[in-house]
Amino acid sequence: MAVALLIGVGVFVAARLSSVKPSASIIASNFIGYDFARAITGEASEVTMLLKPGTEAHAYEPTPEDIINIQKADLFIYVGGESDTWIEDLILDNEISAQHILRLMDYVEVKTEELVEGMDSEAEHDHDSDHDHGSDALDVEYDEHIWTSPVNAIRLVDSIKTKLIMLHPDKAALYNENAAAYVKQLYSIDQSIRDIVASSNKNTLVFADRFPFRYFVDEYGLDYYAAFPGCAEQTEASSKTIAFLIDKTNNMHIGTILKIELTSSRLAESIAAETGAQVLELHAGHNIAEADFDRGVTYVDILRHNVEVLKEALK
Ligand SMILES: [Zn+2]
How far from 114 is each of 178, 211, 251, 287, CA to CA, in Å? Predict the structure, then answer.
């Protein structure tokens, strides 16, 4: 119902402004930058996403055409974490102008990825060695999933809005109005999550998957166990990690095993089969399925889904 309504609004705006040339071309590296820029500019800009809908965000490699498009864009929005090292290289080589970029990790307090008890440490090992080849490899690896906290999402919408107004001051009123409407929805979701956490006597989440939700759990004071750290490429958990997650699920009477979007549910299903728990998906928003993309699903829609999942998981 909500989605149908959104599409209706989109069509109406498109028809009304169809004679107006989009004032800016914006490219975003992932779904988050895409969704926020789209929400702020409406039909006043042409916003595109580099990732193909439905694809794994961490496996993305830019094509020469992508790079040419980024060079021509009025604004290029990227996160600035380990998935985006190729962008930082292009900026260092002056292939992309620093004036026309927005690095989202500059606008929130960043945290390092962490290893918690039971996590597959081999995953962390693979993960590190993967990033050791570059001469500019950083010693500390920051967790790039900053947007998973709705509080951060509010800051990110604001930073994109400010940058867009700098580029197109004549659109300030429209961008301010659109951003305010979007941020209002984010505040309401933030409050729903706080209410759920406050009224539950549980506060531990179990992920039989990678864990991109560090910013989310920290914001709401939740604990978690997970099979792998945030951006690990490994998806085969060790028997030790599987046994650990099964034990925690049983001992803590956890009724819901979580998995993230666009990954296999095999590990989650096998832990669920051993424990009698259900499997639900908490969506991290890196990218969305093609059908959802075509329907115009927004990050707010994803968060509303997550609110329902959280309610179940903390039951
Ligand atoms: Zn990730």
Answer: 36, 10, 23, 23
Class of residue 8 by CB neighbours under 10 A (exposed 0-12, middle 13-18, buried 19+): exposed
List the one residue out of 59, 52, 50 whose CA is nearest residue 233: 59
Q: How far is the CA of 211 from the centre of ligand 1 (A)?
A: 8
> Rounded to an integer, what distance in angstroms lies between the CA atom of residue 21 and that of residue 33?
22
Could you report the per-residue pLDDT of 30-54, keeping only the tens digit for each? 999 999 999 999 988 899 999 999 9
Q: What are the start-end ranges of the H helices in 18-63? A: 31-41
Residue 79 CA to ligand 1 center (angstroms) comes to 11
Centre of ligand 1 from the C-alpha of residue 209, in Å: 12
pLDDT over 70 at 114, yes or no:
yes
For ion ligand 1, residues whose CB falls within 5 Å:
212, 231
Q: Find the 306 Cα to ligand 1 centroid distance in Å.
A: 17
| Residue predicted with more confidence, 285 or 92 | 285
φ and ψ of 111, to 5 deg: -125, 155
Cα(36) to ligand 1 centroid in Å equals: 18
Question: Is-contact 42 174, C-beta < 8 A?
Answer: yes
Q: What is the mean pLDDT of residues 172-178?
A: 97
Residue 145 Cα to ligand 1 midpoint, Å, equals 6
